[in-house]
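As a warm-up, study this chain.
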Amino acid sequence: MKSAKTVMFAVVAFLLFSCVSNVEEPAEDLLSRARVEYEKGKYNNARILLDSIKIVSPKAYKTLREAEKLRRDAMIKENERNVIFFEQELQSLVAVRDSMAAGFDFNKDKRYQDRGYYTAPSQSIAQNVYNNFLRACVFEDGTMYLTSFYRGKSIRHKTLRLSSGDMYVACENPFLERNYKDLGVNNERRDYRYGEDSGLVDFILVTQGEIAVELSGAKGKANYTLRESDAVAIRRVVELSRVINSVKKVQEMLDEARYMLEFLKRSEARSSSLSSSSSAE
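Now compare it with the structure written out below.
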């Protein structure tokens, strides 16, 4: 009887071992492949393999614990690499932005302005006191405006229309309107925010040749031809705007990567602390 019980126990033990072995084997194979990808620095590939262990062998508890540890390590390494990449990218873009910005006038009155803005020197108010013209400016946060300056008989213009040949574009919704007198002469300023300007700025970017400008409002119309120097200035401001917005975007991505890295490191520290406490018990 004793002999039969011993044999039965041995058979059951063998079957249990075989089941565990069969459960763990495919999981261990995936874990091994994930480690190879990890060592190569292919952290995303490693995480995909590690995540597949839960699907292939959901009961391979031992391997799953090891896989979870490697997955956290891979995420930390991946985010460390992201932080380094975004830091380098930001440094490069800031250098480009500062180099470009040096060719513009920077305007900011700290008494009432939270942010300054850049304009081309040729479009300064002092140089264009008697001109009707379009001026572009870009703020420090990347927001860009096209401003219509009109001096003359009051027309209370709202609509700004640009045309060249058979092509034209018009915007009827200025973001901001200002009317004032300078030395007794009527002055009107209308700001159109880039992106909400019905394509005014983009029209200037792509149009070759003369561009006719028409201003119209409740009291009449005014017409003039956009100077080439103003068109060039506007295009330059657009280029600066794009770089400023790229800097802003990369800074946001860097902040996000740093936050995620810090979060992962804190989580790993807590997990290590809990594992140490369990081992001590």
